[in-house]
Design brief:
By secondary structure, the protein is mostly helical. It has two domains: about 200 residues, MFS general substrate transporter like domains (Growth Hormone, Chain: A, Up-down Bundle); about 200 residues, Up-down Bundle (Growth Hormone, Chain: A), CATH 1.20.1250. The chain is globular.
């Protein structure tokens, strides 16, 4: 993308079809984080394995996605974006198909691990692709597309998976994403200019990947297993040594320097806090409505859909507002609305009806829609031109850890508070996480030319 990286895009050269590709692939990659959950019982029966073994159809995807984000970001800064995108989308589709025809569990788990590795590349590339496909003054709108569609994929995953499971069987939860990948491959091949090839990671990169993968895998496992008991959270301590060795080594120092160079490290914390608050809220509300209030699964599903509906409607608006008034202002406003919506849920009790819950969720969803794109535009617009993928990978890691951390902490808080006050305690945790994001985003940027109240700067995109 030579002309795009040079920073001289004219109005006619904005490639909105590539922004659409970034949105579609973000939706597909996040959809795969949750769509398989509803099919685990059928997978266990179909492959004649235990429920614990079937669970690795989910963990086998999630672990490489989170563990490889930072190493993949460093690698992508030195290769051609077009070649990497074509390879990742093709690999994702190929191993989706392989998972759908799995004759036994080891085949399925292996396919899901490979699929997760390609998904990690997609997660890092999508904000970079959206940013580089339009002029700087349109980045807010462009970044809002993957920033909105990605979380919507995570939210709609269980609903889509349930529909496919009831009508077509568990193998179709893997096949449904392939047409979107093929469409993306077609558009990228036709529209995106050639910008260099790929090269294999060197030995140093492989060693760094092993350290990060070991640390993040242990951390993710501790958060995942915490649903069975808060003591599992202590396992997270074992993640510190490999992550520390990596951070102090030649692989970690450039990543830390790139994130610090943006002056927006608190914004990464805000992304993690909002993701944790959103995930905790979604878990607590669904469980409370069905288990404590006796609401049907269908009514519960329709109620929680108020959040993605509000988010989907507000996402494009947030991008336009960011381009006009500045990404910082809109990001803080969106985080504030999300916090208000979640705070209004804290008094949740038996007397509330699904509509009472729905409008509060819709308000929080509007806030998330306003926040997502502007926050990504704020951080990615401040990234050093040759380290965009590295900064993007750090941002995606923060979001992914937040999605995993939220339900785990909500479960732990629920257990500590007891069955009577558990839902309220979990919602208070979600609201506190969202409230924390507001001052983090409002902090002035340091060590960067980017200032929060202003529009994102026009950072020249030089040839890598």
């Amino acid at each position: 993308m030579t002309d795009q990286r040079a920073g001289h895009l004219s109005r006619g050269e904005d490639r909105w079809s590539l922004v659409a590709v970034a949105g579609v692939l973000s939706f597909v990659a996040m959809l795969d984080m949750n769509i398989v959950n509803v099919a685990l019982a059928d997978i266990a029966d179909g492959l004649d394995v235990s429920a614990a073994t079937a669970q690795w159809a989910v963990l086998g995807y999630q672990l490489p996605v989170v563990a490889l984000l930072l190493p993949v970001g460093r690698w992508l800064d030195g290769v051609g974006t077009r070649s990497a995108l074509l390879t990742a989308a093709a690999g994702f589709a190929l191993f989706s198909a392989a998972a759908s025809v799995a004759p036994w569990a080891s085949w399925l788990i292996g396919a899901r691990v490979a699929q997760g590795a390609f998904a990690a590349v997609l997660f890092v590339l999508m904000p970079v692709l959206a940013m580089r496909s339009v002029r700087p003054e349109l980045r807010g709108r462009a970044m809002s597309v993957p920033a909105t569609l990605g979380p919507l994929g995570a939210v709609t995953g269980p609903a889509v998976g349930g529909l496919l499971l009831d009508q077509l069987g568990w193998r179709w939860v893997f096949l449904v994403k392939i047409p979107f990948c093929l469409l993306a491959l077609f558009v990228v091949r036709r529209v995106m200019p050639r910008d260099g090839g790929l090269h294999a990671p060197d030995r140093r990169s492989l060693a760094d990947s092993s350290l990060v993968a070991a640390g993040v895998t242990v951390l993710l496992l501790s958060l995942t297993l915490a649903s069975g008991g808060p003591l599992w959270l202590t396992l997270a301590v074992a993640a510190l040594p490999p992550l520390w060795w990596w951070l102090r080594g030649p692989g970690g120092r450039p990543v830390a320097a790139a994130v610090r160079a943006t002056g927006l490290l608190p914004a990464h914390g805000a992304v993690l806090s909002l993701a944790a608050g959103f995930a905790a809220m979604h878990y607590v509300v669904a469980l409370h409505l069905q288990r404590d209030d006796g609401v049907s699964a269908t009514t519960t599903g329709l109620t929680v859909l108020a959040f993605p509906l509000g988010m989907g409607l507000a996402g494009p608006i947030g991008g336009r507002l960011a381009d006009h008034y500045g990404a910082g202002r809109v990001a803080v406003t969106g985080a504030g609305l999300t916090a208000v919506g979640l705070l209004l849920l804290v008094p949740l009790g038996d007397g509330w009806s699904p509509p009472d819950v729905a409008w509060r969720l819709a308000l929080a969803g509007v806030g998330m829609g306003l926040n997502g794109g502007p926050t990504q535009a704020l951080v990615m617009g401040a990234a050093p031109p040759d380290r965009a993928a590295t900064v993007g990978s750090a941002l995606q890691l923060a979001r992914s850890l937040g999605f995993t951390l939220g339900p785990a902490l909500a479960t732990a808080v629920w257990g500590i508070a007891g069955s009577e006050a558990g839902a309220r305690a979990g919602l208070a945790l979600a609201a506190a996480a969202a409230c924390l994001a507001v001052p983090l985003l409002a902090l002035p940027a340091r060590g960067s030319a980017v200032r929060l109240p202003d529009k994102t700067v026009d950072v020249p995109l030089t040839q890598e």
